[in-house]
Amino acid sequence: MSNVETIGSLGENESLKRTIARLNLSEHALVGPGDDSAVINAPDGRFVVTTDTLVEDHDFKLSWSTGYDLGWKAVASNIADVAAMGAVPTALVVALTAPSSTQISWLEAFADGLSDACTQLAPGCGVVGGDLAASEKVMISVAAHGSLEGREPVLRSGAQVGDILAVAGTLGRAAAGLALLQSGNTDAIAAYDDWVNLQRRPQPPVAAGVEAALAGATSMLDVSDGLAKDASRIAKASAVTLQIDPLMLQGFEAVIEEAARAIDANPGEWVIGGGEDHSLLATFPSQATLPRAFKAIGLVLPQGPAPVMLGASPLPESGWDSVTG
Amino acid sequence: MSNVETIGSLGENESLKRTIARLNLSEHALVGPGDDSAVINAPDGRFVVTTDTLVEDHDFKLSWSTGYDLGWKAVASNIADVAAMGAVPTALVVALTAPSSTQISWLEAFADGLSDACTQLAPGCGVVGGDLAASEKVMISVAAHGSLEGREPVLRSGAQVGDILAVAGTLGRAAAGLALLQSGNTDAIAAYDDWVNLQRRPQPPVAAGVEAALAGATSMLDVSDGLAKDASRIAKASAVTLQIDPLMLQGFEAVIEEAARAIDANPGEWVIGGGEDHSLLATFPSQATLPRAFKAIGLVLPQGPAPVMLGASPLPESGWDSVTG
Q: In the predicted model, is pLDDT for residue A325 greater than 80?
């Protein structure tokens, strides 16, 4: 017997009680955690819902990310999908499975990460329910909800020929962070800890989702699997070709170029193929004023030989597949 | 290389596409699967949300349950929590993790189980989004949503002294099924396959949730962890004592008595401590007309020495803890 409190020694009820005590409340909850279900406001008579799961050793390593990091990341990756509809995140439910030997302090840090990510990335949003179960590996599954506030949702399928393609947020930085961690090069990790930290605690531009909707965005999604793969999703859903201007990616590459050199990597591949930045990729009518958070990177063309072109060349769909890796 | 198609050989996108094609649509979805989020109707300006997770070797064994069974069970266990608020289930999101060696036929059967459970237990409800990821073990996490249709939610905390305690659905049958499977007694399993099948594919009395709300239920929950444990949750939340009349449990015991005898078990323990029937336990004002699905099993007393009494004796909180087992 050890004196360290674990979720196994405390049991589900006590562990959940300690976790819930650390969570911030959703401003939109009429009934919060503790009953069979929560009850959430949906003032315009609709709600937005999405789900995303993080699996140990597939999506993260416990040696690279703290409980706090993972709580943050679970929130960030899900509310980015809410923002990508042009909605405001309102409420989350969180299912966590973890070994019963997990220390309660890890779980408390996880709750703090959930809480801080809500407060900092989507003020007013909070965790309204959850589930805790034993398993050999840590698995975090979140369902996130949002309000469209009377607006129409921005889908992937609305891009029109002649629209401007633009991105809000970073490209390639999370991939840089991952490559640095994988390199095991402790000097490089220390020197470029901003990218490592962004990998651990993504910073999706949540407010830019609503701004895009208000500016007339015709399509939008969250860049979770890499620019090439996610751009091709808009292209296919909208039956168009997206042409990315390679010159417009140079700024994204420049930021991570030094880190790439330190570990002999190619920053261009990170920008085009790297996932987990959780930026927003959107199309806007050519006469629209782009919201400040967005930077134009290309154009919408009639459907051509490839869904996505980088300049004059077809861009292969590289990127992350959550099953095959 | 094998010719059997697996989720690993097909990848996330193709596997999800095949799954989604088998799902029934939610009548309440304005935007269904395929975008960053779904958009669901919430006509009274609120929605109900809950989440529950099933973990391989903790909540189920793949040798005892098919993909179809698990799809069914994941829906049933979650919509019971929606029904327990007095709400009508409208939409689900489903996260599945499974080994990449999982055959696509298993995933298709899982989708059929999701679909059939929605159609049969909660017509109009459907799966509106999901996530598929690789992991060593199968894990199913669902978030279920519902509409209160303008009614107030029925919480755990509203039981009043003098109320009648009543249950809709079965007690102990799912525990009987589990004990039969654990016994390995193939003759007994074959003879009492009704209880085994109820364990695999629970039949929560979903419509009874709304009926209870309309009849004025003062508190309600879904009996997922056993009568003793779940009754104590109402008692604690309402600051009352629930007194269960042992005579009123005899009918529940009688049904599973023969199966208990076949494997030398105690049917009374199944009725009091067995989880996963996903019945509804509710309290009603003494003058209320109980809906037909409900059977009175006790009374609400002022808070006494124990949260739950069985006749004149305190009832210990046995039951299922999802962390400690």
A: no
